[in-house]
Each structure stands twice: as structure tokens, then as C-alpha cells.
Specification:
The structure holds 2 protein chains of 2 kinds. Chain A is of the alpha/beta class. Chain A has helices at 157-165, 170-182, 194-208, and strands at residues 3-10, 19-23, 28-35, 41-49, 55-64, 69-78, 84-93, 98-107, 115-124, 130-139, 145-153. In chain B, α4 (121-134) packs across α5. Classes of the chains: A alpha/beta, B alpha/beta.
Chain lengths: 209, 248
Amino acid sequence: MAKTELLYILRPGDSFQPLTVNAGAGEEYSVTFLILPGADVSVSIAADLTGAGANVRINGLYICGASERVEIKTNIRHLVPGTSSNQIVNGVAGGQARAFFDGRIIVAQDAQKTEAYQTNHNILLTEGAKVETKPQLEIYADDVKCSHGATIGRLDEQEQFYMRSRGIPEDEAKFLQLISFLSPVLEDVPEGRKEELAALVEASLRSVL
Amino acid sequence: MSDILLKIEGLHASIGEKEILKGVDLEIRKGEVHAVMGPNGAGKSTLSAVLTGKPLYEVTAGSITFLGRNLLEMSPEERSWAGIFLSFQYPVEIPGVTITNFMKAALDARRKHLGEKPLSGAEFLKLLRSKMDFVKMNPDFAKREVNVGFSGGEKKRNEIFQMAMLDPVLSILDETDSGLDVDALKIVADGVNALRTPEKSSIIITHYQKLLEYVVPDVVHVLKAGKIVATGGRELVQVIENQGFDKF
């Protein structure tokens, strides 16, 4: 079975060439992107699932702490029966950052037995940061398993107080919460790079706290 | 050297517009175990919240001195470093953070504050295991996320485990006995009793006398409507048991 792993680490000054994927029968694509502090970037990923057994996974995160503007757009089309997709995009916005998520899943009329999942969770660290999320699910088939969920929230202060009461400083408490929040994104990254990416994420989080 | 550990004078505290503590005075000496008893709504949990610096609780008058320092100027983490520990009435779940990582972060931060080197991984694990053993906690819990999916008794045991790890000077047990069966209660009591030394003190905040059968207090206070209305020895527990709080 053909398996393609794509990894994008986006730093200040980087741009992202819109990505188009066509996953045929039995093909598997795993796309990971990390938008690091200071990157003003627009990430656009379109995937067509055109053969039975095709599987597309998108794992993305953003960490912003200043005045970044980040746009993430996904467009997943399940065109034939028996395909699957899973998207997890989580992000943290601090400072005056702006983040937009526009995630679309289309399940065509013939695409029975599709499984399509999408989650987009966002944490606001400051009053000045703003996030918009627009999850869209268009299903034209009737025998499918699909779900999507999007949230925009703040870090839980009860958890923070509990940690602080044990002597964990406020920023360290937030750091532990954010690591936990972002870790689902890093579960599916290319083998052998997990530690390196986790370290990158940790350093990025510390820089925005 | 004064042997006074904690001194609360004329303490008034509010949450939002509502005044809950209306002039509390309390003095705790080193080595003493104090019980603060009172009916629901008396202000017992507010007292523990104010002692540990919980956000949203506002002290409007009075003072708290801990080992000669103005406690009210200290952040929650600074109070922990100074040796204050609260066993929560409702321990908080922290998804994604294991007990090991949680306790490592707590000990590292305190040691850093005190100018000490962090414990090595091996030293830390040895300490963790010995304290888990001390509170009869299954070692598998080290890898579990803090309080996530724990039963009521497991959460309370985890509080006493953390107390043993942090070795506080002043332990505040807020309704630690509520929701515990007798076996769990004994473990909690054994933990508290074993940590009792002439230098260390505890405040046991409770509605019931259950825990006080196992951890015998030196001084008992009755808190009612935001004020301490009676203070006495352990015989007061029996008076409350027989006559309830209405008498006060």
C-alpha cells in the first residue's frame, strides 16, 4: 500500500504552496504542518479521495504569540465508496494574533461507507487574540460515519490554580496545559521525528508564554 | 524564636459582592493540629481558598502572617514553596498531565526557587515510589493523568500522596473525609498522623467528626456565619456530635 508522509514546518518568512492531493485506491497520505510563532502564513490543503481504501490524514497546529495572521483551509472530497479522512488542527493564539480555520468535508452521493472526521480546537491566551473557525460538512451519501467539532476557549483556571497550589509557577502550569492540548496533533507525525517536533513545539510554546 | 506558625487577624473575605468571612481570628503554633468545624455555608472552604490564594476571593480587611511573612502578598506557588499545602475538597482533573510529570514539575519548581539542583530522574522516582507506597497507592497511578477517571477515594488518596511528596509545614485538609469509606479514611488519617512532627501543623476543615476520630486535634474551632464562635479542646468535637451546630 502506497504511503506518503508530508511534513511542513513553517517559520517566520515561510510561505506555503497550496497542496493538492489525489488519493487513489489503497493510497494513504499523512500531512503534518506546524505553524510556529512569527509565521504569517496561509495553508491550503485540498484532497480528493478517488479510490476505495484511500485514506488522508491532516495533523496541524499553530502557535502564535504576537501579531501573526494565520489561515488554514482544508477541502476534503470523498468521491468514491469506502474512503476515510481524519483532520486534527489545534492552535494557540496569544498577543494580537489572528487565526482562521476553514475546513470543508464533502461526501459525494456515491461515496457510501465514507468515514470522515474533523476537529479544530483553539485556545486564546489573551484578550487581544482572535480566532474564527468554520467547519463545514456536506454529506450527500446516506451510509457514512462523519463528525466534526470545533471549539474556541481559554485555559482552565481551576487546573491552573490546582497546579500553582503545588508550587508549579503560573507559566509552567499553562505550558503543561498547552502541551497536553497540542499533543494529539503530534501522535501521527512521521516516525523518527516525533521527539524533534515535540521539542520544537515545547520551545515555541515557551516563547509565547 | 516565636513558635507561632500562622496568625489570622480580623480577616474579612468576599467572593464577588458577597462577604463570606466576617472577622476571623486564628492562631496556630508549630506542632498543633486544629480542626475547623461548621455547618454548610459557614465559610470553611473560603478560609482554605484565602489561605492558598485562590483567584476571585478578595480579602477586604485583616491580615494573615505565615512564619512572619505577609501571606496575602504571596502568589499561590510562593505559598506552596513556603510550605503551605491544601488537600482539595474537589481535586481537579488535569487531562494530559501524568502524576509523574505533575509532581516532577512541582518539585523542580520548588527546588529551583530554593536554589537547589533538580532531583535526578532516579532520585525522583525513588521518592515517588516510596510516597506512593506510604499512602498505599498502586504504582500504576504514576502514569495516569492527574485525577482523570479516579474514584472519590482515589482522588483523596492522591491528595495525601501529593502532601507526602511536598512535605508541607502547614497542611490544610478541606473536607478530606467527605465521601470516603472507613478504609480510605484510615489511610488518609495514617498519612496525616505519620507526617505529624513538632515543627508541622495541620488545619482540618470538616463538617463531620469522622476524620477527627482518627486524627485527634489539639484545638477545635467552630466557624459559623463567617466568624469563629467557639474555640476549645478536643472535647468540643463531642459537644458538636451530641448537640449539633445550633447550640453555637
